[in-house]
Amino acid sequence: MLQLMYRVRRFFKMDIAAMSVVMANSQVRSDASLAMIANVKDLMQQQGAQLTEMLSQSVQQAPHPTLGKSVDIRL
Q: Closest by alpha carbon to 15, among 25, 23, 5?
C-alpha cells in the first residue's frame, strides 16, 4: 500500500511539473505571437503613411489643359 501511495504521489508530481512546462511554453508562444503582431502593426502603419504621402505628392495638374482628355483610336 505504501508503494502504491508513493507511485501515486510521484505520478502527480510529474504531472504537475509537466503541466508547468507546458504552460510556460504556451506563455512564451503567446508572448512571441503578440510581439510579432505588434511589429506587423507598426510596419503596416508605416506603409500606410508612406502610401498616403506618395499619393498626395503624385496629384499634380497636367501641364496642358486638354492633355489627356481625349484618346485617338483607329480600327
A: 23
- What predicted TM-score, i.e. pTM, was given to this entire model? 0.52
Cell 498616403 found at: 52
**Alpha-carbon span 15 to 22, nearest angstrom:** 10
**First-to-last CA distance in the chain?**
100
- Contacts by residues 28-34 (CB-CB < 8 Å, ≥ 24 positions apart): none
Tell me if 68 sits within 8 A of 62, measured CB to CB: yes
CB atoms within 10 A of CB 15: 10
68: left (phi over 0), alpha (psi -120 to 50) or beta: left
Return the pLDDT at 32.
Answer: 94
